[in-house]
Amino acid sequence: MRIAMIGGGYVGLVSGACFAEFGCDVALVEADATRLAALREGRMPIYEPGLERLVADNVAAGRLSFGDDLAAAVAGAEAVFIAVGTPTRRGDGHADLSFVYAAVEQVARHLTDYTVIVTKSTVPVGTGRRIHEIMRQARPELEFDVASNPEFLREGSAIGDFMRPDRVVIGAESERAREVLRRLYRPLYLIEAPIVFTGLETAELIKYAANSFLAMKVTFINEMADLCEKLSADVHDVARGIGLDGRIGRKFLHPGPGFGGSCFPKDTLALVRIAQDAGAPSRLVETVVSVNDARKAGMAARIIAACGGSVRGRTIAVLGLTFKPETDDMRDAPSVPIISRLVEDGAKLRAFDPAGMELARPLLPAGVAYCRDALDAAAGADVLVVATEWNEFRAITPSRLAGVMAGRVVVDLRNVYDPEAMREAGFDYLGIGRPRGGDTVASA
């Protein structure tokens, strides 16, 4: 099969490379000249484990190509995927669909034969209908179908998620369109991956509902962590105790400083607006948004409290800047408001992240020192803060930290370290939702 992928960002690039691995002929269109040049040179514009090799293999095999000629890309394509950005629109929280509709208008001008136009971008309910209207107005004589195929890719494990998915959701309303997409996903049929066929609106809503539910689980365990601190309970035991219930599940029950990234913040806010506009407000999701925003803002206060109420003149090392490990994504990362507040209160910041420092620089205050590794960041620090749970941080023993730090305060916002081992090494250790040496942890 021949397909076109419009957009070489995270979703488009991963999806395009994986479809090529399935054996498809994939023409990826990228309008940004800098990103296109990088792709043609084999340099990945995003950090994703395994992606560089996957792209290189399929380019070498002639199944994946990059360009900016949309007409050439869509020529002969059985499906054209729209995988452009849908950022939160300023002022009202709705998803900005200007890039989606601009891409559709360009596609409409160049199609010559029947094609399925597929939204891979996360789009509000009703977008597929609007795309159909745009296509019909532009090309009343053309045969086409519109489908929705939302992505469920976790940053850091996106290739595995695409190749071995929990499910594939396809919103399509003609058998012809369903057959095109069924053939496209045939390799997943062979491994018995569930393929869920729905209507357009249902597929569009599934994406928002899934991400909002997962965000709700994260927010729930974060609130339970706060309660554990008041009651001298351990949130990890609580998470295990409820997560072993098959109706609940163990995933996304990891306490921390709040969710971030490219999906959860944007999609929860968009669902709030979609529900409000439909006259069926989602009070649970509204609360999730407000609780998470407050939590991220309050994490710096927790660190300041651990330092006796002031960080002025203190040297603070922050390990991890990205919103999660195995990605360079800094979008809505909790580290940004945390570091900004600490600098504002007079602290000297030293930071290290294995992948995200380049993207972090324009988001963080001037004066933050970027270090070559975790121990370099910790050297001479009065306070150590773990903001992202990269595996290489787990490998650092308490004795090694004690050997380079000037102070003994550790605020572990990801519960990377063993509390007892840290205390035995002489650290004043503060985790999330864990008893503090037999005493309740002061809530900040």
Mean pLDDT: 95
Low-pLDDT parts are: 438-444
- Counted by DSSP, the helix tally is 19
**Principal-axes shape call:** elongated
> What is the percent of helical residues?
40-55%
Mind explaining what this structure looks like?
- This protein has 444 residues and is of the alpha/beta class.
- It folds into two domains: 2-198, Rossmann fold (3-Layer(aba) Sandwich); 212-430, 3-Layer(aba) Sandwich (Rossmann fold), CATH 3.40.50.720.
- Helix content is 44%, strand content 13%.
- The strands form three sheets. It has a six-stranded parallel β-sheet with strand order 3-2-1-4-5-6, sandwiched between helices. The chain has a six-stranded parallel β-sheet with strand order 11-10-9-12-13-14.
- Strand 1 (2-6), helix 1 (10-21) and strand 2 form a beta-alpha-beta unit.
